[in-house]
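Running co-folding for S-adenosylmethionine.
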Amino acid sequence: MPPPPAPEQRHQDPAFVRGVFDRIASRYDVTNTLLCGGCDSGWRRRTAKLLARWNPREILDLATGSGVLADVVQRWNPEARIVGADFSQPMLRQAWDVRGQRRLVVADALSLPFRDASFDVVTVAFGLRNMASWPAALAEMKRVLRPGGHVVVLDFSLPGGWLREPYRFYLHRILPRLAGLISREREGYEYLAESIEGFPSGAAMTALLAAVGFERATFAPLTAGIVSLYTAEKI
Ligand SMILES: C[S@@+](CC[C@H](N)C(=O)[O-])C[C@H]1O[C@@H](n2cnc3c(N)ncnc32)[C@H](O)[C@@H]1O
């Protein structure tokens, strides 16, 4: 058996990540709601409204999980056809049972079962951070996008200024305990802080998008920078 990945890389180990989401699937939505009191609804709405201005017809929501973003995106883009993809079947089961979503595909983001240039927009919310290779995942998103299509990444980042250190304290010391109690899966949440610390944000993420070949990369910090919203275009 190969040795387990070093702890700091564990949050990018696909078997570990899938196992965590398989186990917390039925408690994922409630854990999110209790941890941030519904603050994610504003981030998702902003993401969905942003897409609407491109009037997309075919949207892929990658790492769709329980389908919470896909649901909001569908509401703001009623004409669009949205496919949700995720490698955790129990998470997709939530999207199916709780949200009534039917266009769901079990797939690894690094090897998508879609033809080149199939989608107008690819969204990924709180999913890219845990993927084994960020450049490879972004390159795969670019492959399935049509020329002129957009990738939209919503993910955690660290706030700047006075909030940074108190927030890091919360992230490292308080959040894993709270999330562990609610989700009954403390191990998965122990890596959340590490994964956020190591994830490129702001200009570093737009540079990564450019390195993969996307153009016109933008970013917007939301809620004092706790989360950031990135877009880029495939030319
Ligand atoms: C934190 S959840 C986010 C779910 C949803 N996007 C949301 O905003 O609530 C992360 C999801 O990413 C999925 N995921 C992580 N790595 C993946 C990969 N390589 N391929 C497909 N899905 C992946 C997990 O199974 C999980 O459902």
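Result summary
The CA atoms of residues 123 and 152 lie 5 Å apart.
The chain has a mean pLDDT of 93.
Job closed.
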